[in-house]
């Protein structure tokens, strides 16, 4: 058997290798679509408020549907359910490409398509994350598998936006959406090829299954502290996803390529954080890293809000990407490493609901406020709020992060 480096040890498992390779293609396609959609919205309307509405439509279902989705997916075979979800997501991307290519796309249609994508992702995201444990045969490799899975997301976040910027300049938005539709095919094939026993199913009504998961979360102070930190970071720091097109166009007087570089810088920082976590073998050390990443996020936001130099803003974006990823990925590893298998779907669903749901709320508020106050003041205000939360949380950390 091939011996893999310690930082890649999860790849020694055949099922995870299949999933990892195919997911790399799918995640890259998703980032290309995300950047293309944000650029399409801003080009059609020039509205920062509509950017916030579109982001909210994409992410808010995670908060509204995600917790119930966790109780639902724990009652079914996760692999078969994921094949269905990936097929529907591919169909959504193909529809978006067709509408754009035929000129039938408009602000209302964009919001509707974003909402459809959000509803599907509200089930798909916790389903994928909770299924990762089934792709590795050794629980000691689960943390590494989750970190490598996050590395796919962050590497695509680094490569995808600049690639999307180039594709937008050369071909326009519709081909970007079409590429994303095609990117789901390898993942569907890989899920059909993996050899694994049906995942455990939880019996009982949806209400009782949901209640069991909620009782576990509310009764565990460490889990509550981790989830509160995820809420604070994504409500504030993740608003950059909504405001970057405004900064690229208004502050730096750039085009889609400028947006791609800014987004790519954040991706580079995220990649560094996920790489660091892939080496980590001591889950007990993660809470300190997570709360340190919160401070990095707040300070990077403050620098970016007041910077008028592109090079400095790129550095700030890299630091911000590192901070957000360190928080989110570290929390995911911590939760999944300590959660019983039977409850994993529900706990991961709570994490993704807060992670993406409050990013949606923060993005909506940031877009609406930026339309009246400007992007820089809004981003500066969000960084101040995150700094205040960090100071408060550090006073409580010894009792809550143990």
TrEMBL record:
**Entries under CDD domains matching the protein:** MFS_MefA_like
Q: Where in the cell is it found?
A: Cell membrane
Residue spans crossing the bilayer = 20-42, 48-69, 105-123, 226-248, 260-279, 286-306, 312-335, 347-369, 375-392
Ion transport recorded as keyword? no
Q: Does the keyword Transmembrane apply?
A: yes
**Which keywords appear in this protein's UniProt record, sorted alphabetically?**
Cell membrane, Membrane, Transmembrane, Transmembrane helix, Transport
Q: Where is the Major facilitator superfamily (MFS) profile domain?
A: 7-402
GO CC terms: plasma membrane
PROSITE patterns registered for this protein in UniProt: MFS
Note the topology in the membrane: Multi-pass membrane protein
Protein name per its UniProtKB record: MFS transporter
- Molecular function terms, GO-annotated: transmembrane transporter activity
């Amino acid at each position: 058997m091939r011996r893999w480096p310690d930082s890649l040890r999860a790849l020694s498992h055949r099922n995870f290798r299949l999933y990892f390779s195919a997911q790399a293609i799918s995640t890259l396609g998703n980032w290309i679509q995300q950047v293309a959609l944000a650029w399409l919205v801003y080009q059609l309307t020039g509205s920062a408020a509509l950017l916030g509405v579109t982001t909210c439509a994409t992410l808010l279902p995670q908060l509204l549907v995600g917790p119930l989705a966790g109780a639902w997916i724990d009652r079914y075979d996760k692999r078969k359910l994921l094949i269905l979800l990936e097929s529907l997501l591919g169909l959504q991307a193909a529809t978006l490409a067709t509408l754009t290519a035929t000129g039938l796309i408009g602000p209302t249609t964009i919001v509707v398509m974003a909402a459809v994508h959000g509803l599907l992702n509200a089930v798909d995201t916790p389903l994928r994350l909770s299924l990762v444990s089934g792709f590795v045969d050794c629980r000691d490799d689960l943390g590494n598998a989750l970190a490598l899975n996050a590395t796919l997301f962050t590497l695509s976040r680094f490569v995808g936006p600049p690639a999307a910027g180039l594709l937008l300049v050369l071909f326009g938005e519709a081909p970007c959406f079409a590429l994303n539709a095609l990117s789901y095919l390898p993942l569907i094939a890989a899920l059909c090829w993996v050899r694994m026993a049906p995942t455990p199913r939880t019996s009982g009504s949806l209400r009782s299954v949901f209640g069991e998961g909620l009782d576990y979360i509310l009764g565990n102070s460490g889990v509550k502290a981790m989830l509160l930190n995820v809420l604070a970071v994504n409500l504030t720091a993740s608003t950059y996803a909504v405001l970057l097109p405004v900064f690229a166009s208004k502050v730096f007087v750039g085009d889609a390529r400028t947006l791609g570089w800014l987004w790519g810088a954040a991706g580079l920082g995220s990649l560094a954080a996920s790489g660091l976590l892939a080496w980590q073998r001591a889950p007990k050390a993660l809470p300190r890293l997570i709360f340190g990443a919160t401070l990095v996020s707040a300070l990077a936001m403050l620098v970016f809000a007041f910077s008028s130099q592109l090079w400095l803003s790129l550095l700030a974006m890299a630091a911000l990407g590192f901070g957000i990823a360190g928080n989110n990925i570290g929390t995911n590893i911590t939760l999944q490493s300590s959660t019983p298998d039977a409850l994993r779907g529900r706990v991961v669903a709570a994490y993704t609901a807060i992670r993406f749901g409050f990013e949606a709320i923060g993005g909506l508020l940031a877009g609406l406020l930026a339309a009246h106050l400007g992007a820089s003041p809004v981003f500066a205000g969000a960084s101040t709020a995150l700094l205040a939360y960090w100071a408060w949380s550090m006073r409580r950390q010894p009792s809550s992060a143990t």
